[in-house]
Amino acid sequence: MTGKNHNKKRNSILLYEFLVRSISKSLIEDDNSRSKIALKILKRHFKPGTQLYREFRLMNALAKTTVSSEHVAASILKEAKSAAINLDTSKLDREKSLLIRSINHAINDENFYDQHVRDYRTFATLQSLFNEWRAKDKDLHKAAMYEDHVMKHLIAEKEEHDDTVLSEEASGTTRLVMKVMAKKLNEKYGESLNEKQKSLIKAYAFSTATEDKTSISMKLKEIKNGLMNLIDEYEQNLHNNDYIKNKLIEAKNALVSESLEDVNDDTVTRFMLYSRLQDELGSKE
User: Fold this and answer.
1) Which of 36, 114, 129, 147 has the most Cβ atoms closer than 10 angstroms to its Cβ?
2) Per-residue pLDDT reduced to its tens digit, 66-103
3) Position with higher pLDDT, 42 vs 172
4) At a CB cut-off of 8 Å and minimum separation 6, what does 175 contact?
5) Is the pLDDT of residue 2 over 60?
6) Residue 41 DSSP symbol
């Protein structure tokens, strides 16, 4: 249920969802440049303290919360109405305009505002309700219809969606990007992964999401040093097998030449193989 005056380009929770999906799509398509641009826009405009962030949190809470009775739902709706009315609408409108400008100028996607969002109707109804609550010339009939829809939504059981991660905190964005990256990498490298390989993928996903290379660098160094030590130990016990010894020397030389300054998918692929070799050598007596 949405009003005729609903504008999806000025809907706080839809704008957040559009950015989240843009990040996800870009990561899956290996377009890291576009994903970083969208992530930067999301973090800059949906930061705590802004009116946009406050409105998003209110909508997100109403969209995701399930309550046990109409009485509780009515109480929550009353609190939400008070909070929505108390937002600084002048600042909120200005922040939305700046966000839309950033999206239009920085994200080259003509379908950005037409992306499929599973809960579109609910998000549209929430924005329409907030707008009606704050309207100077209130339409009580419209407000009652929107409130009734949101009341029913609050009481209804919510489905868990794998493709949606909305958080009240900035770290929710990080978790989303980690989830998308981990899914992408798991699909790329297959399901037969050992625990060290899964840990490597998790570290790489976290580093990509946070743009902090500390975790992935530590994980790669751990694999590199561990395998180097295993190769040294294994070589000492190889007296008459020149073929295996030469192969281990090749692996050791490849490890020595590995630069951990610029970590990408190719680097992770090689270290997935190193990790497998580390497991094989470590399991042999």
Assistant:
1) 129
2) 888 999 999 999 999 999 999 999 999 999 999 999 99
3) 42
4) 165, 167, 209
5) no
6) H
Give percent above pLDDT 70 in the chain: 81
CB-based contacts of 94-102 (< 8 A; 24+ apart in sequence): 95/45, 95/50, 95/51, 95/52, 96/10, 96/12, 96/15, 96/52, 98/45, 99/15, 99/41, 99/45, 99/52, 100/9, 100/10, 100/15, 102/41, 102/44, 102/45
Give the global pTM.
0.63
Radius of gyration of the chain (CA): 25
Q: Evaluate if residue 199 carries a pLDDT over 70.
A: yes
How far is it, in rounded angstroms, from Cα 239 to Cα 156? 71
From the centroid of its chain, how far is CA 248?
A: 40
Mean pLDDT of the region 1-10: 72
Parse the chain into domains and list their residue ranges.
8-155, 171-283
The residue with tokens 């029913």 is 152
Nearest to 126 by CA among 55, 76, 74, 72: 55
Query: What are the CA-CA distances from residue 223 to residues 196, 208, 218, 229, 233 (Å)?
Result: 9, 19, 9, 10, 15
Q: Is 108 left (phi over 0), alpha (psi -120 to 50) or beta?
A: beta
